[in-house]
TrEMBL record:
PROSITE patterns documented for this protein: NLPC_P60, PROKAR_LIPOPROTEIN
Lineage, highest ranks first: Bacteria, Pseudomonadati, Bacteroidota, Chitinophagia, Chitinophagales
Record GO biological process: proteolysis
Entry annotated with the keyword Protease: yes
Protein name (record): NlpC/P60 domain-containing protein
UniProt entry keywords in alphabetical sequence: Hydrolase, Protease, Signal, Thiol protease
Region (Disordered): 32-58
Amino acid sequence: MMKHLFTYLSAIILLSSCSMVKSVLQPKQTAVSQAPASEPMPEVKPENKRAKVGSSSTVNNSTAFQTKEISGYSASLELFSLQQFKYAIRLDVPVEALQNKSLYNLIDEWWGTPYRLGGTTQRGIDCSAFVQTLMFGVFALQLPRTAREQKESTTWIPMSDLREGDLVFFNTRGSVSHVGVYLHNNKFVHASTSGGVMISDLNETYWSRKLIGAGRLAGTVPLP
């Protein structure tokens, strides 16, 4: 997860104020061109002139290249929301993988909502109601109320074929009794009895033992 952290923290700073990047870069360029006139220049021997000129040219070209690269990087990062950066870190994936902004906005809105059996609001919600809310809010798909009914509404798929928006089902207390929505990198979002709305990993011992399988709904594409 740490391999993306530096990139995303830098990106958030750039998104918060792109003008800060310009203000940081510009003074450095000005400082080079406006050296104090009174500062004595070192004597350059004839045999060293070629080396000095070559060194100076290399530094200037490098600075121009880095400035151009930072500017282009900043512009591309502005295409992503802070929620996308936040959840890219949580999922340990490149932010470019999270194209469905409405999905991660909804997850962020419901994050930490406590679990309540039979609940359907942000005062408390159970797993199937959360999946029902997410699938309607993001994909405009109306699902039945229970995890078992939701499983019957899907087309069963192999775990190796999982993609964002698929449903994952678990046997926590007999038959199909828990459901979540798959995201990326073996992670799924769900309303957990222990932590409320959160993201868990399919490879965690508890969930890997309880996993039944996954299903896909037709029309799981982001709304415009």
